[in-house]
Amino acid sequence: VQLVESGGGLVQAGGSLRLSCAASGRTFSAYAMGWFRQAPGKEREFVASISRSGGNTYYTDSVKGRFPISRDNAKNTVYLQMNSLKPEDTAVYYCAAHPNIATMTLGRVESWGQGTQVTVSS
Questions:
Q1: Could you tell me which residues come within 8 angstroms of residue 49 by beta carbon, excluding any fewer than 6 positions away?
Q2: Which carries the bigger pLDDT value, residue 13 or residue 25?
Q3: CB 3.0 to 4.6 Å from 113: which of 5, 32, 59, 99, for a disulfide?
């Protein structure tokens, strides 16, 4: 599956952004979807994931309550609504797809997007 992210940008602390990831090439509903991020000088880390039906979601502790993940299987798109942004959220955000949500949450990803930059100024 091919993934294309959009929606990144520069925002002040406390602001919001919504990332989108459009999928093509395979059956979207067959994949769990997720978001990872990589800050300068750091390893890529898990942010959030959503099951194939959208019924289950998982988050890293630092974004719980701030970054709800959702998907629209009719539009082959997954979203990450980023609220109450902090400077430490600055990173390149990557969309991810994998058949199994459990292994994807551990970092095993079948397909990656190209990434979109999110910069939060203080």
A1: 32, 33, 34, 35, 57, 58, 69, 96, 101, 104, 105
A2: 13
A3: 5
Q: What are 72-94's pLDDT values in tens digits?
A: 999 999 999 999 999 999 999 99
Three-state secondary structure string covering the chain: CEEEEECCEEEECCCCEEEEEEEECCCHHHCEEEEEEECCCCCCEEEEEECCCCCCEEECHHHCCCCCEEEECCCCEEEEEECCCCHHHCEEEEEEEECCHHHHHCCCCCEECCCEEEEEEC
